[in-house]
Every structure is written in structure tokens, then in C-alpha cells.
Specification:
The chain is built from 14 helices and no strands. It is mainly alpha-helical. The radius of gyration is 19 Å and the shape is globular. The two termini are about 20 Å apart.
Length: about 290
Amino acid sequence: MMKNIFGGIMVGIANIIPGVSGGTMMVILGIFDKMMEALTNVFKLNNENRMKDLWLIVQVLGGAAIGLVVFAKVIDFLLANYPYQTMFWFSGLILVSIPSLRKSELREHKLDLKFTLLGILLIGALVYLNPGKAEYDYKELIYPTLTIVNLIVLFVVGMIGGATMLFPGVSGSMVLLIIGQYYIFVGLIKSVTEFNLVKLVMLAFIMLGILVGIYLSAKITDKLLKDNRRSIISFIIGLIIMSSLVLLPNSIISLTPNPTYDLMLFIACLVSFVFGGVIIQWITIIQRKKELS
């Protein structure tokens, strides 16, 4: 139970940051397949495990809600004060997990390199289109008026966010940035404690869209994994490889172009990267012990 909630929290935290994929966190923590299957099966008429599937969904999505709401300000603080170190930490979490991820998901099969390359190129294209995350004062953010058309737009925005939220390697926040809806999305989530009725109604439509997007994405992903597992896993690994690399502030392809380092900052970034890698290795060791016991 705690593993599922923790995985959900990591999904929520990851989806706050453009470039970080919540689905990648689920794959790393070993709950991606179970979550996709549960989301697909929960509405089937003949499902003896409906309550078990529903309980898993509640745990993961509940954790994601906690991650989104509770840690939004924490992540904002880290990105405002320690942006490079934070990105290196997430990159360490992701990059170090890839070898064990390939082994556990493909087992005796080899990567299908053309699909891995396709995943790499897709993330490269998203980064190329990414307009960047400028500093933003959410108190001065102009929210849309409460009309039917705007509520439908918010519902569609939620669907896009939900569909990309759980897919490994693809950052829901980055996609929302590209279509110009990121600040509205985060601003509404941050305002949840204001108890402003208009904002709560808009947030409700976004959340409804997120749920629909998650469900549709899960059904498609689950079917693809069952029919073409090697190709889809190879594609996902390509997404994950490139998404971990673009998180690293660099001058070639990055969400933080033209970075400047001094010696102390570089050392701090390396320490953050190693710390992220140590955490994921520790989680992997715990998972293997449980599988063998």
C-alpha cells in the first residue's frame, strides 16, 4: 500500500516539473503495468478483482493528488533556489534506473532500436518546441471567465494532461507548456486552498478531464503493451533516455539552455545526481528482495 501511495506522490511531484514524466516514476517503482491493467479492467462488467483494482487506483491517484497539492510549493522553492541541483537529482533518479528497467521489462529480449530511436527523437522534438518555463507570478495570473466554452477548453486541457501524466518519458507539464495552458493548470491547483467557487468549478472540470484522459490513455497503453510489448517498451525506454538527458542543464539539448557552472555548483550537481541514483538503486534492491522472498 505505501509503495503505491509513494509512487503516486512521485507521479504528482514529477508532473509539476516540465520535462519530468510521472509515468517514468511509475515504471521505475514497478507499478506501471499494474496501474494500466487496473484502469483498463475497473469498468469491465465481469471483473472479480474490481475492488482490488479500484483500491490500487485510489492509492496511486490519491498519492498523485498529494504530490500535486502538497509538494507544489516545495518543488517551486527548489526550482527557484536550486534549479540545477533539482534537475540533476531527477535525472539521476531516471537515468540510473534504465538498465534494471530494461532487464525487468524485456527480460531475455533485446531492445528494438528503431523504436528506441523514435522515442529519443520524439522527446527531442518536444524540447525543441518547448517555450520554456519563465518565472511567473500566479497572483497576477488572469484566469478564463466561467463560460461553457472555457469549461470545455479546461476539460480538454485536463484530458491532455491526464493522457500524458502517466505515460513514461512524456512530460504532461511540457505538453501543457507547448499548448500554452501550463500556468492556468498550475495556478488553479495552487489556488485549491483559497475556496474560490469560480476557481473550484474550473478546477473540477480540469480534474474531470484528467480522469478521462488517464482512463483513455491506460486503455490504449495496456492494449499496445499486450500486443507489441517489445516495441512499446523499447519506445518507452527511448523516451526515458532522452527525457533524463534533457533535464541536465547543457548547451546541446536541454530545458535549461546555455547554463553557467562554477566548481562548487558542478560538484553540488554531481552529488545531487548520485543521490538520485542511490535512491533508485535502494528502491530496486528492496523490490528484488521482495520478489525473491
